[in-house]
Design a protein that fits this description.
The complex is a heterodimer.
Chain A (H helix, E strand, L loop, with lengths): L4 H12 L2 H17 L9 H20 L2 H4 L5 H4 L5 H6 L3 H11 L2 H12 L4 H8 L6 H24 L1
Helix pairs in contact in A: 1-2, 1-3, 1-8, 2-3, 3-9, 7-10, 8-10
Chain B lengths: L8 H6 L5 H11 L3 H19 L8 H18 L4 H21 L4 H16 L8 E2 L3 H8 L19 E9 L2 E10 L2 E9 L8 E5 L2 E8 L2 E7 L3 H16 L2
Antiparallel strand pairs in B: 1-2, 2-3, 3-4, 4-7, 5-6, 6-7
Helix pairs in contact in B: 4-5
The chains are: A mainly alpha, B alpha+beta.
């Protein structure tokens, strides 16, 4: 297996919310990485590849689902299509529930959560991959986690009622 | 409730990203702050849920195959005149790619630059600058005879403001190279020369630790100038060397 290919697919899948598209975009990203690897300045190879994957994903979203990107992280709460608590609650399956909850978040929140919780990236790596200043990784992550927690709590409340 | 810490701090603490002083402060605070304790345990259970739910996607074998095929196609297209390359170029490319992805501590050119700067600094130590000290190119050039498997171009540029000071042998990237020493007002400039190796050295220049360097390749030779003299000085000398050695 090419190094870091699993991580690349994982990030792309969560950004695009679709496995098949994710593999297409990762293929494109890896070929791009191959073409430009003389620009690789050493350091963290995984972060470098994931950065390219992430950029390819955003280009893909811009082209195919531009509406997903217009919602700014800060004003997401009321504007983003809220996850339907009923559909969340209806799923007894924990994996499905978490999946839907994650997918209901805006891409930028999803991105930091996937990088931190699933890929176990450090703040420095997250900053490098996402192109956000390292000083704001902590606050971005805290907002994303709070959002996810809210969605899950609402779903659980709905289920209980 | 009054918590003197920003509510994001608990995230930094949880992720192990606070510096030691702040982590220690927060840890002490945590003992008495029920809110932060609650946040911490929520963060922990959220992480456990996410990591245990099997959310990680993995690349399929099909994807890897597709990538290999694509790499093969792209390189084969460029080298169709050479059938053997259809296999070896992509195979080599994949190997190089893998090497880069795994653990390349520093890109090759950066390592080379660092090594050359070290060599430059070393040469400035008393007694290390030259093995043969002479302003006469006809003394310096023959001195290299038999010491290297190539003949470095040696020219004195006193008239242009870069007097030749001498030459010495140096080792760079475990190869013997010629080092020529030039003066520029009060500055010392080292010119390293060696026969170009397989990889094409991209022409570029830069600075590091206060030293300026400029690299180029001409007529089968790699050239590197390193000095604390200005980039303008280095460029001027580079152009002189180029003109004299490689243009009719």
């Amino acid at each position: 297996m090419l190094p870091h290919l699993h991580s690349a697919v994982n990030l792309a899948r969560w950004l695009l919310r679709n496995r098949d598209y994710a593999e297409d975009v990762v293929q494109e990203a890896v070929l791009r990485a191959y073409r430009f690897f003389e620009q690789f300045r050493g350091g963290d190879a995984r972060a470098w590849l994931l950065q390219i994957v992430r950029n390819c994903c955003y280009s893909w979203l811009e082209k195919n689902r531009p509406s997903e990107l217009v919602i700014e992280f800060d004003e997401q709460l009321h504007q983003h299509p809220a996850p339907d608590p009923e559909s969340l609650a209806a799923r007894s399956d924990e994996r499905q529930r978490l999946m839907l909850a994650l997918e209901s978040l805006p891409p930028r929140a999803r991105e930091v959560l996937v990088l931190r919780e699933l890929e176990e990236c450090s703040y420095k790596e997250i900053a490098e991959i996402s192109g956000i200043p390292i000083g704001t990784v902590m606050s971005t992550l805290s907002r994303a986690r709070e959002r996810l927690q809210q969605v899950l709590t609402r779903a659980a409340a709905k289920e209980a009622s | 409730m009054s918590c003197e810490f920003a509510h994001t701090t608990v995230h930094g603490y949880f992720d192990g990203e606070l510096d030691a002083v702040r982590a220690d402060e927060f840890q002490r605070h945590l003992k008495t702050c029920a809110d932060c304790q609650l946040s911490l345990s929520q963060l922990n259970s959220l992480r456990t849920r996410l990591r245990q739910a099997g959310l990680q996607e993995r690349a399929s074998a099909k994807l890897e195959k597709r990538i290999h095929q694509e790499l093969k196609l792209r390189t084969a297209g460029r080298t169709s005149w050479l059938p053997a390359a259809r296999f070896w170029v992509p195979a080599f490319a994949v190997l190089v790619l893998a090497a880069f992805f795994f653990a390349w501590p520093r890109a090759g050119s950066e390592r080379l630059t660092a090594e050359l700067i070290d060599a430059h600094v070393r040469s400035l130590q008393p007694g290390h600058l030259t093995d043969v000290q002479s302003t006469d190119q006809h003394t310096v050039k023959p001195w290299f005879d038999g010491k290297l498997d190539f003949i470095p171009p040696v020219t004195d540029y006193s008239a242009q403001g870069f007097p030749l000071i001498g030459g010495r042998l140096d080792v760079v990237d475990s190869h013997n190279v010629a080092a020529l020493v030039y003066g520029r007002r009060k500055h010392i400039i080292n010119l390293f020369v060696w026969p170009a190796r397989n990889h094409a050295l991209a022409e570029n220049s830069g600075s590091r630790d206060g030293y300026n360097w400029t690299v180029w390749q001409a007529g089968d030779m790699d050239y590197v100038l390193i000095s604390d003299a200005s980039h303008n000085d280095l460029r001027e000398l580079r152009d002189l060397i180029r003109t004299i050695n490689h243009e009719p």
